[in-house]
Design a protein that fits this description.
Length: 234
């Protein structure tokens, strides 16, 4: 996909003091969004980076989640009851601690078209929170993914399997496939917040936010979105 200079912009990286400040800043953004728009659709990430944000959301606010719908960005192809599934992650870090019903919390599954349709029928994603992988992936859109991609089953890259092996007993236990929303899907979100923690993410973050917009760095597509905020701490 060719992008003109006009559609590309450098994304400012907001550098925060530490992980606590990163977590509370992004939790404040989510909380303010829910207070202002109680009927809303929010896309949520997993991984180590957002754990502090979820903790802050639970601890600091007494939010009304009744009319919020959540859409997780991705899920491994594995038993959703497995302790490392993203279903389990979300229950542990957020859903079991707030007033949200399982029927309001959506996860992608093999019926990928139905997931896209559900998001669309409900009015689309208002706020999308993203992490970034060390290879520039967002959700499980690995390098080389089409910018037009939609929700689908994907093979995880060797890098991602290595990165995520810290959550599993060994690298062999990491699922090799997942279901992820696409880059085209993410780009339809009205507002996007990208968060990154750790100096091992700084290089890829700089490249993705200020370098060439290229399918070999999936997060670089965010330079062409008109409402993205980026938060980083080392
Ligand atoms: P991490 O993962 O938060 O565990 O670093 C981010 C990602 O891979 O999207």
């Amino acid at each position: 996909m060719k992008l003109t200079k006009k559609t590309k912009k450098l994304l400012e990286i907001n550098v925060l003091k530490n992980y606590e400040e990163l977590s509370s800043t992004v939790a404040d953004i989510v909380a303010k969004h829910i207070v202002e728009w109680p009927v809303t659709n929010i896309a949520l990430p997993t991984g180590s980076t957002p754990i502090g944000m979820y903790e802050e959301l639970v601890k600091k606010f007494d939010l009304e989640w009744t009319y919020v719908k959540t859409f997780n960005l991705d899920e491994y192809i594995m038993n959703p009851n497995h302790e490392q599934s993203y279903h389990s992650f979300m229950k542990k870090h957020l859903f079991d601690k707030i007033n949200i019903m399982p029927s309001q919390c959506y996860f992608p599954d093999r019926n990928t078209k139905a997931y896209e349709k559900k998001m669309k029928d409900m009015g689309g994603i208002d706020l999308c929170i993203l992490g970034i992988g060390s290879n520039g992936h967002i959700a499980f859109n690995e390098p080389g993914t089409s910018f037009k991609s939609r929700t689908r089953v994907v093979d995880l890259s060797e890098q991602t399997i290595q990165d995520n092996s810290r959550f599993f007993g060994s690298v062999d236990d990491v699922p090799k496939q997942a279901i992820t929303i696409g880059l085209g899907t993410i780009m339809e979100s009205k507002k996007i917040i990208l968060i990154a923690n750790g100096d091992h993410k700084l290089n890829i973050l700089n490249v993705a936010m200020a370098g060439e917009v290229t399918e070999s760095i999936p997060a670089s597509i965010l330079q062409t979105h008109n409402n993205v905020e980026v938060y980083y701490c080392d």
